[in-house]
């Protein structure tokens, strides 16, 4: 009699544990993503939001399976874990550095790729500050921005200034600011590109002469 009661108690304990896991696991797993997808939202706030979302997923699963067999509950638990891992991987894989690090827009290339005002852009590698201006010999910030834009966009063909919307550099992605506008025109960029092509041809000729 005692052994049967003991087995019943053990079964109830296992049943209770798996039910709690079905309910709480989504909340725990989603709240762990707060740091990666928080953006401007404080991590603790985002953690609470994601935790609440996870609980709203877990509770219906708990309610639907609470009177089901252990095999159904274990199956629900396993599929929930697999589903959550898939969702998390998809979201994190499609997050840009712009969102992850809450980067600001570069005035030169238009990508959200600058850590702080005056800092170096991760995309065009330029900086908008007095030190960079003086080092490159620019007279004003406007000249700096214009010349760096001409240099950056002259490397591309079929210039639109807006494409690509997401700049990819190895495993890093940066988002173009839709509200950003260049201070140079397409015509100016085309002229600069032709000038650079001519300079490149002359350099090749000089190298051949030396050889």
Protein described:
The structure is a single chain. The chain is mostly helical. The chain has 2 domains: 2-95; 100-210, no CATH class. 62% of the residues lie in helices and 6% in strands. The protein has 8 helices and 4 strands. The chain has helices spanning 2-31, 34-37, 43-65, 70-93, 97-100, 130-136, 141-153, 186-210; strands spanning 104-105, 112-114, 166-169, 172-175. The strands form 2 sheets. The protein has a two-stranded antiparallel sheet with strand order 1-2. The chain has a two-stranded antiparallel ribbon with strand order 3-4. A hairpin with a 6-residue loop joins strand 1 (104-105) and strand 2. Helix 1 (2-31) packs antiparallel against helix 3 (43-65), helix 1 packs parallel to helix 4 (70-93) and helix 7 packs across helix 8. The radius of gyration is 28 Å and the shape is elongated. The model has no long low-confidence stretch (mean pLDDT 83).
Radius of gyration: 28 Å
Number of domains: 2
Order of helices and strands: HHHHHEEHHEEH
Number of strands: 4
The termini sit apart by: 100 Å
The strand order across the widest sheet is 1-2
Global mean pLDDT: 83
Globally, the shape reads elongated
Percentage of residues in DSSP E strands? 5-15%
Task: Give the helix tally.
Answer: 8
Q: Which structural class do you get from the secondary structure elements?
A: mainly alpha
Helix content: 55-70%
> Main sheet, how many strands, which sense, barrel?
2 strands, antiparallel
Low-confidence blocks of residues: none
